[in-house]
Amino acid sequence: MAQEQKNKGASRLTKDEEDALKQFLLHDMDRNGTVTAQEIIDFMEAMGAELSDEETKERRDWVKLIDTNEDGAVSVEEFIAMMERNKMVDSPLELFKFLTRMVAAFSIRRKSARP
């Protein structure tokens, strides 16, 4: 199923976008075609990262930002849609920088919405 989802949108991707998608799918620990915040966190910790509470929160906020159907995970389709919305991004590094800014903006919006 994950491979089918990957192939649905992959034909319209650039090489950099394909690379970003492959990096995204590395975090899909159960190979179901979606990535949860916990999978991202577990993957990073397995790779030796020691995430702070703030960094853990950033990963969770990123998933919430991209997860348009609000099922708690980012699907291949949601990830591809996010990349297509952000065609101005020239490289995976620029994509990462853009996503970091988006998570920061999302966090600020959530804080200002609290009573």
Automatic annotation (TrEMBL):
Tree of life domain: Eukaryota
Example GO molecular function: calcium ion binding
Keyword Glycoprotein carried by entry: no
Stretches assigned to the EF-hand domain: 15-50, 54-89
InterPro entries listed in its UniProt record: EF-hand-dom_pair, EF_Hand_1_Ca_BS, EF_hand_dom
Coiled coil feature spans: none
Alphabetically ordered keywords of this record: Calcium
Name of this protein: Calmodulin-like isoform X2
Organism: Branchiostoma floridae
Organism taxonomic ancestry: Eukaryota, Metazoa, Chordata, Cephalochordata, Leptocardii
